[in-house]
Write a structure and sequence with these properties.
The protein has 5 helices and no strands. The protein has 114 residues and is mostly helical. Helix 1 packs across helix 3. The protein is flat and about 45 Å long.
């Protein structure tokens, strides 16, 4: 495929599992960011404060900004982003959490097709 036929758009998928050692610190940082946001209307501010206070995963989602991940990458402009967070049961020894699982499936498909 020539460069002219190749799309300029790339979907970047990132999945992270983080361990929260200090829920109060995460919630406090989210509340501070909400308080410092001059563009956030008062009704939305109250809703955001309630959400991050009730759920640490929401607080973390409020603090993580996909724009920050690519803003310093030369030649890249963030066009669209969505993200979510949820509390999960995590067992690092479980095969369910093998992060290379998708890569191995793709490699197997390439071997069959190739």
């Amino acid at each position: 495929m020539s460069t002219a036929e190749t799309s300029r758009f790339v979907r970047l998928r990132v999945e992270l599992v983080v361990e929260i050692d200090d829920e109060g610190a995460v919630t406090g940082a989210a509340l501070q960011r909400i308080a410092e946001d001059p563009e956030l209307p008062a009704d939305e501010q109250a809703h955001a404060e309630s959400a991050v206070t009730e759920d640490t995963a929401e607080a973390l989602a409020y603090l993580v900004d996909p724009f920050d991940l690519v803003s310093e990458v030369p030649g890249v402009e963030l066009v669209q982003a969505s993200w979510s967070s949820e509390q999960i049961d995590y067992d690092p020894d479980s095969p369910e959490w093998d992060l290379d699982e998708d890569d191995e499936a793709e490699d197997a498909e390439e071997e069959v097709v190739g």
